[in-house]
Design a protein that fits this description.
The chain is α/β, with parallel strands linked by helices and 200 residues long. The chain is 39% helix and 15% strand.
Amino acid sequence: MPRLKNNFSGNYPEAGCDEAGRGCLAGPVVAAAVILPKSFSHKYLDDSKKLTGSRRMELKEIIEEKALAWAVGFVDNKEIDQINILKASILAMHKALDKLQAKPEFVIVDGNKFSPWNDLPFSTIVKGDAKFKSIAAASILAKTYRDLFMEKIHMEFPYYSWDKNKGYPTKEHKRAIGENGVSPYHRLSFNMNEQLKIEF
């Protein structure tokens, strides 16, 4: 498997951004921005989707300790309903970038959609979380912070099983919506009636 690359632009410092939770029925969309040292390397660093939950938590601690700067941004379900999930995902990335303790010279973003931030040059990279270390690190922080949030609100509404499905549209989650209705954390713009027509 090819190693993840340290840098895309040739500019330093370079921040990588990614988000978690775009395809969920409930909870926030969460993004992270990470600036790694030029020399950073870890044998398990990869796209968060390829890692186990315990491995992600292990890497979360390492990234937070070793990164030159890192930050996380949240956009809740109510704002997602107001501005749509794509704009909310980009807003979450902007919030994370705003909170960085070091200013990047260039921003690389997982996917193919982004809006300019602070007039800095940027590039979107499809499957960037499997190509560049800083985006992979951002994918891990976004995923772990979102998972921890969903586990916390699971305590309020245990029948949706957010501790397991993290708000994604599993059969169990959709069945619980059918039986209990929606919670204050559900995204109403994700046409719940259409979602519930899908076979259980």
